[in-house]
Design brief:
Strand content: 25-35%
Distance between the termini: 36 Å
Number of strands: 53
Structural class: alpha+beta
Radius of gyration: 36 Å
Largest sheet: 8 strands, parallel
Helix content: 10-25%
Oligomer: single chain
Number of helices: 19
Strand order of the largest sheet: 43-42-41-40-39-38-45-44
Shape: globular
Length: about 900
């Protein structure tokens, strides 16, 4: 392939080629009205317009500089060459131009509409005045139809358009219909439009054209303890959310925390993405989050000492270290993700970072610039910190049984060593106090006071359980540490006579400690979504405050605040059509039967009707996780196989129903059928009317199931004890509100307030197929699948101030949902008082029993002056709300998916 000729040089190139190979130019002219020349087209053109030539002419044209590309499928001229040849024929030989047109029409009479439309535009622009935009739009209509269609044909048409439309004459390719078509084609393929197209219109018009090819797309989301996993198409057992898109689905995600920023994510078909959520937050000791940074797909590591802080953010293969000395904030790039981080709490600003590349020492100059020096390390230290001797500041490196005191952050300039009887695992150091506290592998804690005489410099407390966390207060020289048995120890002074006090015992070993002396608290993190607090210095009972994420590190900050780092927490997902989802990772309760497959714990099933066992479209959007095929379909039949295949393609689990034996039906036939079903394979069996099964048959069936440990057994009734405990036994729905809950199935009845109220209660594991066709129930089913509290939470009746409204509150793992249902025949207003309401509490509507969402987005209710919420409900209507105890405004007021203005 040769370089593309300039437009002004196309005539010179043709003239040069004509001088050496005139027959090549003659053949090329016969192709100038064609989108592409297939082998049959090229052969026909040669025989008609160069009949005295041999087949070698076709090869010479293919390898000539007039051709942009040629392979076994087609040959394409350079667009500049093709335009020059058309112009030449129009001016000098219009009769030949007409012959070429007739040949092109005849040869491509069966070509795709894309090709014929392209060639029609070439001809119109060649022979007459420039076509008007309405004419161009009429000609491009078949192309619009193909791009608007779905499937592989639309993708192929879009690729063709992006390649060939720029080859049309300028008056056509620069028209508004051609611009819209190229933008739509790029969106269909999940590509950004060419840069030149983006400057043609404002952001809103571009967005409007892009959404023309959007359809409803299912994406799968699986909430993990430290983040979430997204998949397209949805993975099996994943929560299915609806979004809009074409070749790609554009999503915006952010941690649901104050100040958290949006992150962009493009999800393509066949893609699977796991995103960890790293969090750094400034928090009060009572658990109130003031500001946070949530990094999706990245990690955060922070350190705090006095008024100085450092935060290392790793995302997209880059690590940025942000330094805050209380007056200015600087950013420094790092070559790798750090493992250890320490800042000096006094003296010249200094930060030590240990990573795979070695030790980075970052200092801040008077002029506000940062200087980073990399020191190679032969052995990575177990811990680092900053302290000082009587003469100078030192960097402390824990290496083996020693703590090295190095000058100017340079490991090659060792001023001294602090020896210990066992390898040092943890350090807490202070420049202000001139102190180094070290915890060793024997469970001993040693405090070195570097600025006092040698005879009173070192204090060591006897070994004990492994030390899991170490902290202190630089002003008093106090040191606190936690051990593997959950105890927290502390000494209020760092002198040789300091006594150690057991402050209390935590429910789990601490992984990090912070001493807030001014607040009189020791705050511990145990890796969970809470902070544990003990009084200082006297100790006492442990109090816990919940947090919206799992805490890994806790550092004392100024003003009785804390700097926390951790992972996980709620994630807000917003699709381009404005649909918003809030995902909450949390601990899962055990399945009803410990021997049951894990998927059965969360899965909601539906039994397909025997008369018309078809799979409803979009079934997973409504929270359905498994489908039961009716007993009327024999295994191995064509209908059974087709339905099983489609169900698998949808990512659903499959149970097969077995009817109880009747008449002379031999037990062996039923067992054979069960065996055939499990070998298909299906994911389990559902025994209908289990109380009608004979005990000998149940025993043999149970023995058969034991050979398939991943298969589930579901019954709709209490079976004979001979079967043993079924993995899931479905009974009738409970009374409302019940005092205890089992596992039950939703009754097959018209939608009613009772039906909506039942969906707010725990234990529902199966719904009738008819419920999926009821538009009023679909939003409730989808919301139930998305909220952990609705699937696993506790139940509490909430007073509403009126007998016509029933309200229940569901709570699980820090998530709270309030469900209200009216039984009145007219509009009614309820007054809801929640015991933990504050001025920051709000109710955000997540579902209502109407098919269409509110046009203005989800309703948000705030408490009145007396702390109560006023909720209006229509006749017989249901509304569900998320209870946000510490709600915060969104990080921006504008639409996060709106494209930037040009």
């Amino acid at each position: 392939m040769t370089a593309a000729p300039e437009r002004s040089g196309a005539f010179r190139l043709i003239a040069e080629q004509r001088r050496h190979q005139p027959d090549v130019v003659r053949l090329a002219r016969s192709l100038c009205l064609a989108a592409q020349a297939e082998p049959y087209f090229l052969r026909g053109a040669r025989l008609r317009f160069a009949p005295d030539s041999a087949t070698g002419l076709e090869a010479r044209l293919s390898f000539s500089p007039l051709v942009e590309a040629a392979d076994s499928r087609a040959l394409v001229l350079y667009p500049e060459v093709s335009a020059a040849l058309r112009r030449e024929l129009y001016v000098h030989d219009p009769h030949l131009l007409g012959s070429v047109r007739d040949f092109t029409l005849s040869a491509h009479r069966c070509a795709p509409p894309l090709v014929r439309g392209f060639e029609e535009l070439l001809w119109t622009a060649t022979i007459g005045p420039p076509p008007a935009e309405p004419e161009i739009e009429r000609t491009l209509t078949p192309l619009f139809r193909q791009v608007l269609a779905e499937g592989t044909a639309a993708a192929e048409a879009s690729r063709w358009i992006l390649h060939f439309l720029p080859r049309l004459p300028e008056v056509v390719r620069e028209s508004l219909p051609a611009w819209r078509l190229r933008v739509m084609a790029a969106e269909r393929l999940g590509m950004e439009p060419p840069p030149g197209l983006m400057s043609r219109a404002d952001a809103e018009e571009i967005r409007t054209v892009r959404t023309l090819v959007h359809t409803e797309v299912d994406i799968g989301v699986r909430a993990e303890p430290d983040g979430l996993t997204l998949s397209r198409p949805p993975e099996r057992d994943a929560l299915v959310l609806g979004a809009s898109g074409a070749g790609r689905v554009r999503l915006r995600l952010r941690g649901a925390l104050p100040g958290a920023a949006w992150h962009d994510l493009d999800l393509y078909d066949g893609e699977h993405t796991s995103l960890g959520v790293g969090v750094a937050a400034e928090v009060r000791a009572d658990g109130t989050v003031l500001a946070a940074q949530a990094e999706l797909g990245g990690t955060l590591l922070c350190a705090r000492a006095g008024h100085r802080a450092a935060l290392a953010t790793t995302a997209d293969g880059r690590t940025v270290l942000r330094l805050d000395d209380g007056e200015s904030v600087l950013s420094v790039g790092l070559p790798a993700e750090p493992q250890l981080l320490a800042v000096a709490d006094a003296g010249p600003p200094a930060t030590a970072v240990v990573g795979d590349k070695g030790l980075h020492v970052v200092t801040t100059a008077v002029d506000g610039t940062a200087d980073a020096v990399l020191h190679p390390l032969t052995v990575r230290p177990a811990a680092v910190g900053w302290s000082r001797t009587a003469e100078r500041g030192v960097l402390c490196l824990a290496r083996g049984n020693e703590v090295l005191l190095v000058d100017d952050g340079d490991p090659g300039r060792i001023l001294g060593t602090l020896s210990h009887p066992a390898p040092v695992l943890r350090l807490w150091c202070s420049v202000r106090a001139g102190l180094v506290a070290a915890a060793d592998a024997e469970g001993g804690v040693t405090v070195h006071r570097l600025t006092v005489p040698p005879e009173t410099r070192t204090v060591r407390w006897l070994p004990g359980p492994e030390v899991t966390a170490l902290g202190g207060d630089p002003r008093a020289g106090a040191v606190v540490w936690a051990t593997a048995d959950g105890r927290v120890h502390g000494t209020a002074e760092g002198g040789p006579a300091a006594a150690v006090t057991v402050l209390g015992r935590l429910p789990a070993p601490a992984v990090s400690l912070a001493l807030l002396a001014e607040a009189g608290l020791v705050v511990a993190a145990d890796g969970g979504d809470r902070l544990l607090r003990l009084d200082w210095p006297g100790g006492g009972p442990v109090t816990a405050v919940p947090l919206p994420f799992r805490v890994r590190e806790v550092h004392p900050a100024t003003g009785e605040l804390l700097l926390l780092s951790g992972h996980g927490g709620e994630v807000e997902i917003r699709a381009e059509n404005g649909r918003t989802h809030l995902l909450t990772p949390g601990p899962m309760p055990p399945p009803p039967d410990p021997a049951a497959p894990g998927w059965l714990r969360d899965s909601l099933g539906v039994v397909l009707p025997a008369r018309n066992p078809t799979l409803p479209a979009g079934i997973r959007r409504w929270g359905i996780g498994h489908v039961c095929l009716p007993a009327s379909l024999p295994p191995g039949s064509e209908e059974f196989t087709a339905l099983l295949t489609r169900t698998r393609q949808e990512g659903l689990r499959v149970l097969a129903e077995l009817a109880p034996p009747h008449g002379d039906l031999a037990h062996g036939e039923l067992l054979r059928r069960a065996y055939d079903l499990l070998e298909e394979p299906v994911d389990g069996l559902r025994l209908r009317e289990a109380d009608r099964w004979p005990a000998p048959l149940l025993i043999r069936l149970r023995h058969l199931l034991d050979a398939y440990p991943e298969s589930a057994l579901v019954t709709d009734g209490t079976p004979d004890p001979a079967l043993g405990t079924a993995h899931l036994t479905l009974g009738p729905p409970p009374a409302t509100p019940p005092t205890s809950y089992g596992t039950w199935t939703l009754p097959d009845a018209p939608p009613s307030p009772r039906t909506c109220l039942l969906l707010a209660l725990p234990g529902c594991h199966e719904v009738p197929a008819s419920s999926l066709t009821v538009p009023e129930l679909r939003p409730l089913l989808a919301a139930r699948a998305a909220q952990l509290a609705l699937r696993h939470g506790t139940v509490e009746s909430v007073p509403t101030g009126t007998e016509a409204v029933t309200a229940v509150r569901r709570d699980h793992a820090g998530q709270s949902v309030l469900c209200l249902t009216s039984t009145a025949d007219e509009p009614v207003t309820a007054r809801i008082s929640l015991p933990d309401t504050t001025e920051r509490t709000q109710l955000t509507e997540i579902a209502r029993d109407v098919p269409d969402p509110p046009p203005d987005g989800p309703a948000v209710l705030r408490p009145s002056a007396d702390g109560a919420f006023t909720v209006g409900l229509g006749p017989g209507r249901t509304r569900w709300f998320r209870v946000r105890k510490d709600a915060h405004p969104p990080p921006e007021d504008t639409d996060p998916l709106a494209p930037p203005a040009r």
